């Protein structure tokens, strides 16, 4: 099932973005295709994650995947608000309706990642884990600023409201998504084979792709506008497919372990 979800999701993402890039239906049609595809992918993958979470028996894992599924759903709602024009009016502090939805989605994602590892507090030194995540993300952010963001902002003539908005999104990605993901990876390394790697690797890969897509979005939006069906759109769609595949893999692994335990139970006939 995880592989099937990945294949279907990647195929749909490629189809949507190819149609948008070819300007099927003209410029407005391409924009509609891109917006519908991105939103539909988010809703479908969010539903898959929530459905998998509902079937997962392990309590903390169920809560973690439910948070991630809700996060993907809120992200899809933010995409829908953007594509339908509901966020065209600026609200308090310059924030739009979609910004609030994206922010809530990021916080739910953080909660899901943290719930997945807090159960190991008695076996892992979380002070070191948090320190490693802080150092890794700080160094990466500094490198990104020096090599790319600072020169790009200089080329654009300095700080502006659109640039500041994109920098805020990137900062949120680092703090609310990338740093907790580094924590998950650090815990997985310490626990070794006991900590199921597949689902976590899928989530980690999705987070990295999500951050890179936001970085590409910054590039396109500040240097002339985001094209429908462009690399950021495809990246966002693939990221949520990876999240859904991870949830399906987690459910499949739990069911496999349960079947093995049943087969090897003392009361099982040989």
How would you sum up this structure, described in words?
The chain has 270 residues and is mainly alpha-helical. It has eight helices and no strands. The protein has helices spanning 2-21, 26-55, 59-84, 97-118, 126-155, 161-191, 197-222, 231-263. Helix 2 runs parallel beside helix 8. It is globular and about 70 Å long. The chain starts with a helix and ends in a 7-residue tail after the last helix.
Structure summary:
This protein has 270 residues and is an all-alpha fold.
Indicate the topology:
Blueprint: H1 2-21, H2 26-55, H3 59-84, H4 97-118, H5 126-155, H6 161-191, H7 197-222, H8 231-263
Number of extended strands = 0
Indicate the mean pLDDT: 83
Helix share, percent: over 70%
* Coarse shape: globular
Terminal Cα separation, in Å?
A: 30 Å
User: Structural class, from helix and strand content?
Assistant: mainly alpha
Any low-confidence stretches, pLDDT <50, length ≥5? Answer: none
Total helical elements: 8
N-to-C SSE string, H for helix and E for strand: HHHHHHHH
Rg over CA atoms, rounded to whole Å, is 20 Å
What composes the largest sheet? none
Please state roughly what percent of the residues sit in beta strands, choosing from under 5%, 5-15%, 15-25%, 25-35%, 35-45% or over 45%.
under 5%
